[in-house]
Amino acid sequence: MNSISFTKIAPGVYRSSTGKNTDSVLSLVGNEKKLDGISAAFDDMPMPFEGVFTEKVRNKTVVCIPRKLSERHYGPGLRFRGLATNYSVIHLRCDHYGGSDNGRTHVPTPFYLSDAGYGVFIDTPEFISFYMGGSVRADAKNPPKEQNRGRGDWSADTPSEFVEASFEGDADIYVFAGKNMLEAVAKFNLLCGGGAVVPKWGLGFWHRTHTRFDENDVENEIKLFEEKNFDLDVIGLEPGWHSNSYPCTFEWDKERFPDPQRFLSSMQKKNIRINLWENLFVSKKAGIFAEIKPYCGSHKVWNGIVPDFTLEKARDIIAKQHKKDHIDIGVSGYKIDECDGYDEWLFPDHASFPSGRSAAAVRNTLGILAQKNIYNVFRKENKRTYGLVRASAAGSSMMPFCIYNDCYSFEQYLTGLASSSFTGCLWVPEVRDANTAEEWVRRFQMCVFSPMLMLNAWANGVKPWKFEEVEDIVRNTIRFRKSLLPYLYNAFYTYSKKGIPPFRAMCLDFSGTSSQKTSELDHTESPYETLRLFDIYDQYMAGDSIMVCPVRPGEKSRKVTLPPCDWYNYYTGEYAGNGETLEIECELDKIPLFVKGGAMIPTYENGVLTVRCYGNEGKGFVYDDDGETFDFEKGEYALFEMSFTRKNGKTEGTIEKTDGEKFESEYKTVKFI
Amino acid sequence: MNSISFTKIAPGVYRSSTGKNTDSVLSLVGNEKKLDGISAAFDDMPMPFEGVFTEKVRNKTVVCIPRKLSERHYGPGLRFRGLATNYSVIHLRCDHYGGSDNGRTHVPTPFYLSDAGYGVFIDTPEFISFYMGGSVRADAKNPPKEQNRGRGDWSADTPSEFVEASFEGDADIYVFAGKNMLEAVAKFNLLCGGGAVVPKWGLGFWHRTHTRFDENDVENEIKLFEEKNFDLDVIGLEPGWHSNSYPCTFEWDKERFPDPQRFLSSMQKKNIRINLWENLFVSKKAGIFAEIKPYCGSHKVWNGIVPDFTLEKARDIIAKQHKKDHIDIGVSGYKIDECDGYDEWLFPDHASFPSGRSAAAVRNTLGILAQKNIYNVFRKENKRTYGLVRASAAGSSMMPFCIYNDCYSFEQYLTGLASSSFTGCLWVPEVRDANTAEEWVRRFQMCVFSPMLMLNAWANGVKPWKFEEVEDIVRNTIRFRKSLLPYLYNAFYTYSKKGIPPFRAMCLDFSGTSSQKTSELDHTESPYETLRLFDIYDQYMAGDSIMVCPVRPGEKSRKVTLPPCDWYNYYTGEYAGNGETLEIECELDKIPLFVKGGAMIPTYENGVLTVRCYGNEGKGFVYDDDGETFDFEKGEYALFEMSFTRKNGKTEGTIEKTDGEKFESEYKTVKFI
Fold first, then answer.
1. A638 has which bridge partners?
2. Distance between CA A325 and CA A313 in Å, rounded?
3. How does residue A42 score in pLDDT terms, banded at 50, 70 and 90?
4. Residue A376: what are its φ and ψ, rounded to 5°?
5. Do both B454 and B508 map to the same domain?
6. Per-residue pLDDT tens over the stretch A457-504
7. Strands (E), A36-179
8. Contact in structure between B598 and B614 (CB atoms under 8 Å)
9. Reduced to 3 states, what is the DSSP secondary structure of residue B578?
10. Nearest residue in chain A measured CA to CA from B56
11. Cβ pair A155, A486 in contact under 8 A
């Protein structure tokens, strides 16, 4: 047992290490840290550092992190079944979410939070197991009292003084202290490079066309959208665009896309971006096959060889080819599929790689390194990209990629949205199909307040107007998303600068939205009387001030918990309450939305910036830039500060450009309502 | 890459090793091998030994076992969701079955079968991962053809030339060859000590009473059974019999059982056996606490210390206490709970133990070593025991313990029954409750042809006569089980001598009951077009000749597949078919049963051995002994051979004692029908 000491590297950010660590995810990814974005001087540490110790057990390093028995934890890793993680055992490994939150996750970031106001990040690329405060040491100083199940009350949980984690090799350990969990998350995201800078077009409407579409099919699809008067910003091409997919060539199918340059130019003229699906397993028909083969692992996936993405050489070969064949002719980004595994569709844990790294380390970093590789190409071209990826890791907060998977459960989509805010990633639900017109609407609505609004028709070729009876509602739902651009863009600006996630679990913004109770004995299904931890997951925060309460398919009314501050109805501006629990009626064409008192919500439609004001007085801001490049770093942006007062039903607002002389914003006509 | 060579140790049984192995499950358990029971001289090896190779990758040993691309595999490990395992990745670890067959299983025995007619056993106590023929090496000599998902047919599966397995340390490797899988399984079971010798009373009716019953409650329960005229052979006492449980003292609660000796004597007079529930985690209130503490691990479970069962000293302390406080006064066996884990309720993977063994090795052998420890006490007393356990491993075939868990799915119970025959263990479904009278009946019926017929009322105190309208049917179902004793006892005799499991998946006895098809693309739930492997799991073989076709709750009729031989209706003796697929009507009071032509099924009721004969001529046997001791090893048994012919509706049978002069069987009056 060794105590380890921590060094302060920024206000409320501390670093230590379990030994001489040569391989960390952050160093592999190489994002620039944004710790100077930490303005808060919060330096108290609500967790006793001096109690952290490590030990070596066989080939593992064990880290024991003290906790109070009453602390509540969130993370590590993206989850879909529930938020708090107390007492659970989480064997993190990058994998497809297979129905239970056992650690197999698309985003196995070894970062967890405590509601005492801190976060812990153990930066290892290896598989790591977390014992979230339920495993008691035989020599515990403060062991829980022995209970007798034969008599009286009993609970299956045994709170421990430590969170314990074990992994091979050594690792850097970071602790982030804050006044609350949100500060700890924000500091973690800043360490990882801050939040993603996304292009404006990325916040529009995405449509992934049928996997076997050719260029004419795509052109026709776009015409249909025009005829139907549906907005369309990004078209995603699925596997069939490749000359071979599963495994991939990354080259155009010459029958379907005989002249990719011409196709991309045509798309550009229509202001439609093209996103390309790919997986990372290389076909022997690929032009890069021979060149990349020496940098590939011992096992194939879908008969394709597997580049060792930890090697710069392997990354460069792919980057060069992607730049030349796709990006230079106008491709806007990628959907990087299948890098999560599902175990069956990845290399074995005993695979070897030319870098000498373990299969675990290669697996856990495959998604993030593939993202970074793509990002770097666009970055050098001074272009923003936005895309999708099936796997990520530490460092993902700054990556303009959304995590997605094969799950299609409404509940699990909601949980994923909330949970992503603990993990430094963007999670995107998507619309694929529906059994009823009402479900169709509810699924589109859920995506309005998510990182990406996308219809994924890759397998069934479905169109947004599938259900005629709700065609108008779906069209307006997409327009609503687009009108929210200034508000959502603000949220991403805050993400980038301050590390605050754009979509957040309620418990990050408000304490008191969590609860627990001991489960009752179920004599047929579950004999353990465990502590069940509840958090609100079916309401969440989007941006600074909007609380989103999605309606589930089939739901005629729903419960809404108003945290303790003034809340207003988004649509009517009416006062809704403060701290109450409401039962609200659900209208088909509306997502129930509540806004914090004093908030100013900027929206933009038909050349008018309409600022919706809630309550009697308040402040807000609008951030703007070209939405396409990184010129904002050279001052090409505008920051407007706003305020409003309301008296006798009359709203008076002010807006003032406080920063960014060089940039001419299109926001000129402003209306306060 | 090292080739390894195999040595023949019995007909069709070969051994090798990956290196100097000091720790194997078989050596830890120490069962006597029964390889002399292998009479078949089948020596062909349907698998090319010379192709087996091993390699060391980081801290793992990798074993690659050649396979033909068309081979179908079963195992490793007990499963509940499906039988064949091709293409799956199975990370075996002893654990509660948590809803998916990913390797977390109550019986993580590293033994798998091929329908080419062989089995492979890698004898390591460590965690071991199996890649069941879907992971292709980059340097494969015979790689599958690259497919293009963008065009034409595609399947997500990539058949590999090898099954690959990886684990820490070294291990013995055994290969069992046979004319078919059943022979391979039988040889594996004989290597592990043969099949369990169970007491006759163990095949009667078991009832586990409410967890907080005292001795008077138990006496009253027995009176109720007598009044209701229900058979009762074994009473199981649940946690409340302990002075402390979760963690356990293993000592009687003096309020509930003030005089255990008197209580046990009373039970003995009524011919009722007592089975005691326990888990293995020691309370500090236990008398053995101080003595066993030095032999316990670094972490507690349910606040109890965890004995290192790989240490003889730890086992001895428990054995001594159990003998003195329970067995010597008449306890007949145990239900050893919670040794499987569920991860949350076990020590962490980085726990340390005084033997110096890994937590993995201690975990994987906890159940089997606890069984062996109990078994040894009874064995020395020349008494048979029969009980339940939540976890097992290699060596379990000879253990008179049934595996159970918290699952209550009818389908998964059926799959477990079939799957247990690949794994060398006995799986027991149990009755806990039902929503309808019909379900109640169907659940009892399913247990009739299982290793144990048990109502588990530990949590709800339910009685077999819960549903008045089916009280007679349930009573008769229990009697039916009891009347089958000679047949079931024969099946266990065959298990013990020849290693043939008493309850078997259809594919062990018959080829042609397996099928496969490529799944169709599901655009909302699963985008992979995988090969789905089907095996009959809802029919199974019990003993030599009976095919059991349980009726699911709610089912009015069901499909029955008759493998290619003559089949007869058990109840009517009518010819049912040969190779056909039938749709049969389901009667509430009958389990659909089909019997092989030529079979003789011995049953015993009211002092008469009734032998049911099927077809026009045939042979059979009856094995008998005292059912309680191991005196059969000294010749105290009887073996009867039988034959019959039937002409013009008249059945003529013969029975002759061919072995066992010393034993006087109670089977004296014999009737052939």
1. A624
2. 18
3. low
4. -60, -40
5. no
6. 999 999 999 999 999 999 999 999 999 999 999 999 999 999 999 999
7. 53-57, 60-66, 73-74, 89-94, 104-105, 111-114, 118-123, 128-131, 162-168, 172-177
8. yes
9. coil
10. A350
11. no
Among the three residues B574, B597, B620, which one is the final residue of a domain in this structure?
Answer: B597
For residue A60, what are the β-bridge partners?
A57, A168
Pairing of strands B128-131, B162-168: antiparallel
**Cα(B163)–Cα(B67) distance, rounded to whole angstroms?**
7
Query: Which residues in chain A are contacts of B245 at CB distance < 8 A?
Result: 148-150
Residue B128 sits in a domain of what CATH number?
Answer: 2.60.40.1760
Instruction: State the nearest Cα–Cα gap between B240 and chain A, in angstroms.
Output: 4
User: What is the C-alpha to C-alpha distance for residues B409 and B391, in angstroms, rounded to an integer?
Assistant: 19
Q: What is the mean pLDDT of each run of 10 residues along chain B (673 residues)?
A: 90 93 91 85 74 94 95 97 96 94 96 96 98 96 90 87 97 94 96 98 98 98 98 98 97 98 98 98 98 98 97 98 98 97 94 98 98 98 98 98 95 97 97 97 98 96 98 98 98 97 97 85 78 92 98 97 97 97 97 98 98 98 98 97 95 94 94 97
Provide the residue range defining the domain that includes A612. Answer: 599-673
Q: Does residue A547 register a pLDDT over 90?
A: yes
Does B242 sit within 8 Å of A302, measured CB to CB? no
CATH of the domain at A611: 2.60.40.1180
Contact between B231 and B480 (Cβ < 8 Å): no
Is the domain of A340 the same as that of A371?
A: yes
What lies within 8 Å, CB to CB, of B566 at 6+ separation is: B575, B578, B596, B597, B598, B615
Q: Are residues A233 and A216 in the same domain?
A: yes
Task: Measure CB to CB from residue B350 to each of A62, A88, A350 and give the nearest one.
Answer: A62
Q: Token pair for residue A356?
A: 């000498």
Q: Where are the beta strands (DSSP E) in A379-476?
A: 387-389, 401-403, 426-427, 453-456
Per-residue pLDDT band at A40 (split at 50, 70, 90): low
Chain CA centroid to CA A301, Å: 26
What's CA B334's distance to the chain center, in Å? 16
Same domain, B348 and B285: yes
ipTM tops the 0.85 cut:
yes
d(CA B467, CA B303): 40
- Chain B residue numbers with beta carbons less than 8 Å from the beta carbon of A166 are 348-350
Q: What is the distance of C-alpha B583 from the center of its chain?
A: 29
What chain B residue is nearest to A239 in terms of C-alpha separation?
A: B150
The two tokens of residue A230 are 């549906």
Do A583 and A476 reside in the same domain of the chain?
Answer: no
Please name the residue ranges forming H helices in B381-459: 410-420, 437-448
Is the confidence at residue A559, as pLDDT, over 90? Answer: yes
Does the beta-carbon distance from A156 to B345 stay under 8 Å?
yes
- Among A391, A418, A373, which residue's Cα sits nearest to residue A80? A418
Number of structural domains, chain A? Answer: 3
pLDDT of residue A622: 98
Distance CA A430, CA A444 (A): 8
One domain, residues B423 and B366: yes
Map tokens 């078989």 to a residue: B26
Which of B456, B485, B514 is where one domain is finished?
B485
Asked if B136 and A303 come within 8 Å (Cβ–Cβ), the reply is yes
> Domain check: are A328 and A222 in the same one?
yes
Predicted confidence (pLDDT) per residue in B543-556, tens digit:
999 999 999 999 99
> CATH number of the domain that A315 lies in?
3.20.20.80
Quick one: average pLDDT of A154-160?
A: 90
Question: Could you give the CA distance from residue A154 to residue A135 in angstroms, rounded to a whole number?
Answer: 17
Count how many Cα atoms sit within 13 Å of the Cα of residue B75 in the half-sphere of its side chain.
34
Please choose, from the candidates A307, A269, A260, the residue with its C-alpha nearest in 3D space to the C-alpha of residue A288. A307
**pLDDT class for A619, splitting at 50, 70, 90?**
very high
My answer on whether B287 and B175 are in the same domain is no
| Residues of chain A contacting residue B526, judged by C-beta atoms under 8 Å apart | 406
